[in-house]
Amino acid sequence: MVANRLPVDFSVSPTGELSWQRSPGGLVTALEPVMQQADGAWIGWSGAPDLAHEPFDAEGMRLVPVTLSAQEIERYYEGFSNDTLWPLYHDVIAPPTYHRQWWDSYRRVNQRFAQAAADHAAHGATVWVHDYQLQLVPRMLRDLRPDLRIGFFDHIPFPPVELFGQLPWRRQIVDGLLGADVIGFQRNGDAANFVRAVRRLTDYTTRGPVITMPDAEGRPGRHVRAQAFPISIDSHRFDMLARTPEVQARAKEIRRDLGDPDIVYLGVDRLDYTKGIRHRIKAYGELLEDGRLDVTRATLVQVASPSRENVGAYQELREHVEILVGRVNGEFGELGHSAIHYLHHSYPAEEMAALYLTADVMLVTALRDGMNLVAKEYVAARSDEKGVLVLSEFTGAADELSPGPLLVNPHDIDGMKDIIVAASTMDEKEQRRRMRRLRRKIMTDDVAKWSESFLSVLAAVQPRPTDEPRH
Ligand code: F6P
To answer: Which family is this sequence assigned to (predicted)?
Structure first.
């Protein structure tokens, strides 16, 4: 497994002591249980600058750290990955920045990851590369190790070619990805966008999901398959966790601490502009203002976990969100009744499960999201078959889970307000009907099934010599 981050983040204390904690984000949530079952190594960055560390075992996995310098973190991670690709791939919600130095660093770091994978993979091994930070690795790795079977999974959306075409290095990215045998996407639409980009930007032939690369003589050679494999969570683990007496008791305690409101709304996101947090809070504030919600009877808990704090767009977002929360609380809060409980923290899975159990309505209103695993965690936690999931149309999860959730267009503030009210007033019978349907889907289509389906398609690839021209 090759991913930008290891599942644990290192930190160095002022006295030089090394410690680690779980890394943020959906990718780790999904891949950790897969790797705990597999006999393999996870190659990734340790989360701190200039930290060289030998491979080690943690949480039941073999971890191989890749070192990044402070400048590489700035240019490859914060720059090209999160200020160029991230906004470009998420519908340019924020404007992407194009810097040649960032691209150079992205190439160099991708080469380092490819080399680490080449050094650690056994002959004929399967290597699974993940996400937008490492799109050049499949091609680089194939050049280094033609004996390997290489898969790539894109955890975020793949944009339409009309947006992707802005990228000065679009051709290199497409060729980098085509080093893989199988390229997985979250939604059919993402896979189709990629195949369209291949058609527009290269002269390779495509037939449905299969792209045929020419060999050195220009004859049809290796095939690459681009297809959707919607990712999931370890549903059973989450379901079990939420059933434990500790988590159940904690859920009751949270409700009491919130002042025993009639209705608790919950948002759980990395503090990211793609998540639609501002739109959600605006709608919630207007509902209080219109008198359609009563602060003494309803409250919104918004967990916004810290993310990419050195990137300007994230710093701006934090200011905007915090001003907005302050304004809504100042205007509509009463003694003992906060309109919004805003928590800029990350929490362990136990606390998340308790929060999900507390939430009568879960608000997932992303402006664009590859999948959104929070929506799936909420459903997995609700074995009581209560609670309503409000879900943005612009998430991969909406493609998969409809018609169970109440779908919402987060740009339509009036529409979102109506859906929030409809969710709050939904009768128990209807809640159960919808939650049952959602749970049937999520408890069956879990992360093990996701990885098995990807890996079985990859295993079916006939190994071929890499005789196509080098790039
Ligand atoms: O799922 C998208 C993703 O960017 C993952 O690649 C990443 O692990 C997660 O979100 C969190 O982001 P970051 O690693 O930048 O904190």
So the answer is: Belongs to the glycosyltransferase 20 family.
| Residue whose CB lies within 8 A of the most ligand 1 atoms, among 4, 272, 273, 311, for a mutation test | 4
Tokens of 438: 């959602």
- For residue 337, what are the CA distances in angstroms to 323, 331, 340, 355, 434? 19, 12, 9, 18, 30
Cα–Cα–Cα angle for 228, 192, 215, rounded to 5 degrees: 95
Query: Which pTM does this prediction carry?
Result: 0.95
Closest atom of ligand 1 to 131 CA is 6
Tokens read off for 204: 């390779």
The packing angle between helices 235-243 and 373-381, to 10°, is 50
Has the ipTM of the complex gone over 0.90? Answer: yes
List of residues 6+ apart from 34 with CB closer than 8 A: 1, 447, 448, 451
Q: Is the pLDDT of residue 468 over 80?
A: no
d(CA 235, CA 401): 14
**Which of ligand 1's atoms lies nearest the C-alpha of 26?**
1
What is the rounded CA–CA span in Å between residue 298 and residue 310?
35
d(CA 98, CA 167): 8
Cα separation, 49 vs 35, in Å, equals 25
Q: Tell me the longest C-alpha to C-alpha distance in the chain.
A: 77
Separation of CA 374 from chain center? 9
